[in-house]
């Protein structure tokens, strides 16, 4: 790692960024691809998910799995689905047998998902007080919220009307719930008691007091990667508190749903369960800064479950620099009306070179380049990627909901209709525009 720490001062955004030492986003990942054992390896297990038709009770589902030589690992009752492992050398035969069962709607591989890999992550930021409105120390670093050249989302104008937002579920690597700039905005499951080893609210999860851990290791749920904490801070780092940075939402509730481990790796069985958890626990805005190259019936059903419960999912378009119309990534590419796919723009309102785009499949742009936010070491860093753009849109959606936009359809329409038209985004995103929260907020009836 090279470069030196930032010290505040009055430096411009560009000079500040040049001072920040950067390292490749591969630093996020030290593990291997979680796809599981390759078929044909005796003694190894492969991961599958099986969805069932309506009316098939859990005992019947388990019987079908046993007949298919599957070992149950996860039950997602709301989706009538189960995750399981099977002998890897019998994978295709077992999937064929399961698909032939009259009660089975689908049987598929449990697809790997990864966080949307940031292109650049900056060295830890040492912030000095350099701004007054709001009075967070690093606010002048946050061009996405306020920029003299108007390449921002007009957050400061929106804050004249509102600074609070509804709950946002962050489906990611977890959140540093003790971070000084996040701790007062963390969602709490008030029906659950912390640390007593009991499922107090009978929701199927033990000690899900400040969120839930759906990874295989079922750890504490604390972010050990940084990605989820960074997304959370973009949404709702506490504003006007004389420290750190400001989220678009000064006050909100961040629901931590950990589906990826310290290496940023997980599975669609976890992401689907995470969506259901968010919906069932009252979140109506979900941020999904993760991706998979392969569609999943299970995850699609979870997104439909969210749509049926009036929940909006804001998804990162991906950082492959590709046309998502022809090279889709999921969940951003699912055609459900409650999914908004977000591209990343720069501090000059250009499409970021790494950002996926698509005139049909990507909805709008939002600033995603060198975004300063919270980190899992208690500090702050800047990072670049569509993973940073999506949380801005999720935060905007939560602000609109709090302001009275009651349905995901209303929120979606406001975000897309009142985006700022940008020539650089014409033909690249469906709306042709970059997020403007103030215009959208002023249009709420």
From TrEMBL:
UniProt xrefs under PROSITE patterns: SUBTILASE, SUBTILASE_ASP, SUBTILASE_SER
A molecular function GO annotation: serine-type endopeptidase activity
TM helices/strands, residue ranges: 12-31
SUPFAM superfamilies, A to Z: Subtilisin-like
Domain of life: Bacteria
Active site feature: 172 (charge relay system), 227 (charge relay system), 387 (charge relay system)
Gene Ontology BP, a term: proteolysis
Domain (Peptidase S8/S53): residue spans on this chain: 167-422
UniProt KW Zinc-finger keyword: no
Keywords: Hydrolase, Membrane, Protease, Serine protease, Transmembrane, Transmembrane helix
Keyword Protease: yes
Family stated for the protein in its record: Belongs to the peptidase S8 family.
Record protein name field: S8 family serine peptidase
Top-level taxonomy: Bacteria, Bacillati, Actinomycetota, Thermoleophilia, Solirubrobacterales
């Amino acid at each position: 790692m090279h470069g030196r720490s930032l010290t505040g001062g009055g430096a411009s955004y560009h000079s500040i960024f040049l001072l920040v030492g950067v390292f490749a986003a591969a630093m996020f990942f030290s593990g291997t691809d979680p796809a599981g054992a390759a078929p044909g390896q005796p003694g190894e297990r492969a991961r599958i998910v099986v969805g069932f038709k309506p009316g098939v009770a859990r005992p019947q589902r388990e019987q079908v799995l046993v007949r298919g030589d599957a070992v149950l690992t996860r039950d997602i009752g709301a989706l009538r689905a189960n995750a399981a492992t099977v002998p890897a050398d019998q994978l295709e035969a077992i999937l064929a047998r399961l698909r032939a069962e009259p009660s089975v709607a689908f049987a598929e591989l449990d697809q790997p998902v990864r966080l949307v890999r940031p292109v650049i992550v900056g060295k830890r930021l040492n912030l000095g007080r350099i701004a007054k409105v709001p009075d967070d120390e690093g606010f002048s670093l946050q061009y996405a919220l306020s920029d003299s050249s108007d390449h921002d989302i007009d957050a400061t104008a929106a804050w004249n009307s509102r600074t609070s937002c509804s709950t946002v579920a962050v489906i990611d690597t977890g959140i540093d719930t003790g971070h000084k700039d996040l701790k007062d905005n963390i969602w709490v499951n008030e029906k659950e008691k912390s640390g007593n080893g009991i499922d107090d609210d009978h929701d199927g999860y033990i000690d899900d007091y400040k969120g839930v851990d759906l990874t295989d290791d079922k750890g504490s749920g604390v972010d050990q990667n940084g990605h989820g904490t960074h997304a959370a801070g973009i949404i709702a780092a506490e504003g006007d508190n004389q420290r750190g940075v400001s989220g678009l939402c000064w006050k909100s509730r961040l629901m931590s749903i950990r589906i990826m481990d310290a290496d940023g790796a997980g599975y669609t069985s976890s992401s689907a369960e995470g969506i259901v958890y968010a919906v069932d626990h009252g979140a109506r805005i979900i941020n999904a800064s993760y991706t998979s190259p392969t569609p999943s019936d299970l995850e699609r059903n979870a997104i439909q479950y969210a749509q049926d419960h009036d929940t909006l999912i804001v998804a990162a378009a991906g950082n492959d620099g590709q046309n998502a119309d022809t090279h889709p990534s999921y969940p951003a590419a699912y055609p459900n009306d409650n999914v908004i796919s977000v591209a990343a723009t720069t501090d000059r309102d250009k499409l970021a070179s790494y950002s996926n785009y698509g005139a049909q499949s990507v909805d709008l742009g939002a600033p995603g380049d060198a975004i300063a936010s919270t980190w899992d070491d208690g500090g702050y860093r800047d990072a670049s990627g569509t993973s940073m753009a999506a949380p801005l849109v999720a935060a905007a959606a939560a602000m609109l909901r709090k302001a009275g936009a009651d349905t995901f359809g209303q929120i979606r329409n406001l975000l897309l209709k009142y985006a700022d038209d940008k020539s650089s985004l014409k033909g690249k995103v469906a709306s042709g525009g970059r997020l403007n929260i103030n215009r959208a907020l002023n249009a709420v009836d």
